[in-house]
Each structure stands twice: as C-alpha cells, then as structure tokens.
C-alpha cells in the first residue's frame, strides 16, 4: 500500500532538501487534535484520594511549623468533624480547579514534545487536493508505507516512531482522560474528519536535525521512502519545471514515478494517471512550455 502527502506548491522544498515537517498538534487543522471528548481528567474518587493525601501533608506541615508537631494530631482528635468537613470542602474545590488544568497540562506537554506527519491512503480525494494542495495547484508525494523509516520503534512500549491508522470516533471508551490508552489520544479523531482516511507517524522533536524559527521541526526523509510525485491539474508551468529540475539534479530521486491528477468537474472527482516516460518529458505531458 502507498500513502500520500498533499502539499501546496511551495512544499517542493521537501523534495529539494529531503526534509519534512512534523507538526505540533496545536498547529493542526483540527482544533481537537490530541483532545478527546472527555468529561474529566480522572474519576472524582481517584482525585479525592490523591488530593486528600496532599491536604493531610499540607495541614500537618502548616500546624507543625506554627505550633509544634503534636498540635495537628491533637486537633484531629478533638475536632474530627470540623476537620473532615474542612478537608471535604478544600478537596472538592481543589478538584474543580485542578481537573481542567490537568487535561490542559497533558496537551501542552505533548505539544512541546512531539510532532505529527499526517498521510492519507488515497491520492484522488477532491477535498484533500482542495484543502491541502492549494486547490490542485500543488502536489501529492507518494510514500512506501513498508519503508523502515515508518517502522522505527525504539522499544516495545514506544507509542511513536511507527505508522498507525487513525481511528475515527466521537465518543472515547472512557469519559476520563487518565483511563484512555495512547492510541485513543494520539491516533484518534472525530468522525467528521473520516474523509481524510489518515495514517500518521509521530516523532519526538528532540530527534529533529533542523529547527526553523521557534516552532518548525524538520526531519530527514530517506529518498527511498518516496516512490512518486503526483502533479495537480492546476499546477503552474513554473512549479512543473521546478519539479523537473529537482528530480533530474538528484540521482537519488531517479526512481520516482510521476503522475497527473485530472479534475473531473461533472462529479467533482479526481483521476490520477501515472506514466513511464522519462522525467525530461514531464513538461510536454502537462502542456507546459519547455523553453
């Protein structure tokens, strides 16, 4: 099976430099990326147990520092009802305040640490051409999904470094974020994105060999992981000639097959056709001037 990356014309730099961006979840088109539809971070009883322990430590330390280590024990002995009520109120308040913050902390930590490369298993989606390839004036890169670059787990419980198919679901298996496994957080999207038929690979930013600006992390792409380039039906002559120049100037790209996406206006579909002619014939195939 091949996988495909829809890109605008300016992303020919991926082919030129053989580096591609892995994008932060916060910069994705989906505002709910890595944000499953849950009610809480954890169950109330779990939060209560943890926060109760924190409350006990805090008040014991507070009273011990001010009145001595025996005072808190004496207060617990003489005023158990009052302390129990005070703890219940404090814990409930802390839970209400900390639960949304805990969910956001998980997201922000992931956003700082990892990026996503999103691919599709279809090269002929009219919507994907329109959304991601500048209305068919861009390109689609074809990848070999069996290439080792897509299967580089570093350990058995590594939830990154390998291709995974995105699961489309509106309601996760649990309303508590802490009870979801990594696949439900990292590799799930809501059903209204199902038309993208996405596969993705996630990598830590610490492995990126190049950072551009504050938040663009690029990763090396082995040329053998690429198998082809599809030219959009509205791609300009200038972009076609740039593609030819890139491919013909790098012997490591000589294996790429080239295709053309033909828009069928009658039913808003896209037909993709590959051919076997030499790369030098690409401009002629598209009707572009060779001068």
> What is the radius of gyration?
27 Å
Strand content: 15-25%
Question: Order of strands side by side in the largest beta sheet?
Answer: 1-4-11-12-13
Subunit arrangement of the protein: single chain
**Gap between N and C termini:** 37 Å
Individual helix count: 8
- The pLDDT mean sits at 85
Helix content: 25-40%
Anisotropy-based shape: elongated
Our count of domains comes out at 2
Structural class: alpha+beta
Give the biggest beta sheet.
Answer: 5 strands, mixed
Structure commentary:
This protein has 291 residues and is α+β, with helices and mostly antiparallel strands. The protein contains eight helices and 13 strands. The strands form four sheets. It has a five-stranded mixed beta sheet, with helices on one face. It has a three-stranded antiparallel beta sheet with strand order 2-10-9. A hairpin with a 3-residue loop joins strand 9 and strand 10 (216-220). The two termini are 37 Å apart.
Topology, element by element:
Elements: E1 2-7, H1 13-17, E2 19-22, H2 44-67, H3 69-78, H4 80-113, E3 114-120, H5 126-132, E4 139-144, E5 164-165, E6 167-168, H6 182-186, E7 188-189, E8 198-204, E9 210-212, E10 216-220, E11 226-231, H7 237-248, E12 257-264, E13 269-275, H8 282-285
Parallel strand pairs: 6-7, 11-12
Antiparallel strand pairs: 1-4, 2-10, 3-8, 4-11, 5-8, 9-10, 12-13
Helix pairs in contact: 2-3, 2-4
